[in-house]
Amino acid sequence: MTRQFITLDQVSKSYTRGGEKLQVLDQLDLTIPEGDFVALMGPSGSGKTTILNLVGGLDSCDSGTVSVAGAEVSAMSRRELPAWRSRHVGFVFQSYNLLPVLTAHENVMLPLQLTPLSAAERRKQADFALSVVDLSDRASHRPSQLSGGQEQRVAIARAIASDPDVIIADEPTGDLDRQSADDVLEILSRLNAELGKTILMVTHDLIAAKKARRILELDKGLLVEDPQQEA
Amino acid sequence: MHFPLRLALRHLMARKTRNGLTIVAISIAAFLLCFLIAIVQGLEASVQSASTTRLVTQSAVSLFVDLPTSYQHKIDAVEGVHLTTKFRWFGAYYQARKNFFAQFAVDQDRFLDMYTSDIEIVEGPGGVTGPEARIAVQKAFESDRRAAIIGTGLRDNERFGFQIGDQVPLIPMIYPRTDGSAWEFVIVGCYRPLKARIPDTTMYFRADYLNEAIVSGEAFGDHGAGVYYVNTEEGVPVEQIAEEIDELFVNGPQRTQTITEAAFASFFVSAIGNLPLFLGTIGGAVLFSIFFSVVNTMMITGRQRLQEAGILQALGFRPLVSTNLLVFEGLVISLIGGGGGILIAYLSEGVLAQLLGQSIQNYQITPDLVLMAIGTSSVLGIVAGLAAGLPFLRSNPTEALRSSG
Predict the structure, then answer these.
(1) Confidence class for position A230, pLDDT limits 50, 70, 90
(2) Residue A178: which domain range?
(3) Cβ separation B7–A87 shorter than 8 A
(4) Domain housing B164
(5) Number of Cα atoms under 13 Å in the Cβ half of residue B265
(6) Domains in chain B, number
């Protein structure tokens, strides 16, 4: 049996909006085994993105513990988190979030600068990541010269370039047409199946969610596992 | 600390118009800084290089009232006085009013003896150079009443281009000739200033040429000496000599005021107002407005980079990296702009020195000035970058990622 890779234990998180306290997560428990591909679904404001941010160390919880790959992320300081993220987490965002002044290749190279690899090794790694998403021929293109689907594939290449343990995808197909969305989901499935990457994906798209091994549904901070989940 | 240099360079190249305009603004600021400080330094240098052992005796009424020539032998007789010379403003121009330069009527032999350490005669009649040039000039002065020496600036300036042996007609504004003709001078020597206060665009000629023409009715005007420059003996208290000279003429016909050459130079600087303060105020205001516009531009850039800061944090870069990117960008832009301004100041140095030469000697873009301009530009860039980039240190990555960029 695979070990529990991502663990949220009694996690609570609230925000203050317009002077009112909004409880987004309330003593949430969640475990995701290594190599799993989980889709998080639920209405807006149900706390899906908050879970991604907590797992990725972009945000901190009010109480409880968040652990990823044996490290207690919720106990890390602001100084420790960036280095940890660079080694263990790859992000894929809905709006791609590529840097427009850099080419596709340079965007993929960027997180590799935080690794001890030599310049030649970084270039090789970036080449490999772009080949995984089948965009080697677009390496020298700027994001503005790519389609939405291609941009998202570059973003996936950037996310996997430094070989992280976890890929966190926040509505990766939200801005894409069906064909491009299918391409992106296909790549994520391959990363999970062939490279064993643990993937935590937020989506509103049931078709996209069905590509995951497991679907979790959040509603008002409560976690409901989809009865139709695939093993 | 991992610094994404390629990203920094790409940012610099990405917004060519904005960055280009910012560079132009900083170039103007750096040029202004160099220009204004060079003027102030030029003014100060002329005061500082003035002799404290040389006195100037002028009319107590006004600098523009000529002292009588009869005063000279009385001043010569004061104990501690070594040499005196008349020093009279002539005020004429060459061909057109725009070709104005300073001319002084002096006692030529005394003047050359008094100014041994102030000017060097670099060329005499017949192209004589070296130590012989001075002797040749003295002889030429004796043999021709019209003889005059000029500074290298008048020789080398294309507008004048006077050469040894040239007959130079000057059109008078103070002492017109009765027949309406121009005054004629013969250039017998060329000097190079050894002190900052001595301009290289001045002509010195024989005082008796002017006075004799007035006395003989060839020219209008009053017989006189202008002011007297007085060299004192070594080790003699100059204040005491000044008092003694002024006491000689306390009952007229012209009361005198004797001051050190340094005080006289200060008087000239202050006569055109508190120029350093005036220039400093204008320059400071311009510099500050450019400074704030650069900071504002960088802050706009910073706001547009908030999302990028979030992306970089998500990728594992520390928030300080985004701040450093803006500081680097600000520094590079400022240094390019500063370098451009310094280059303009250097390239225009000769032209501006000529334009200012009559009123401000020693206009120079010195290495100290260059360092100051580079330092100021650097500080400007760093402050602007910090002002734009410091908010990143407190930014929440999730909020930064949500910003529109």
Answers:
(1) very low
(2) 4-224
(3) no
(4) 66-253
(5) 23
(6) 2
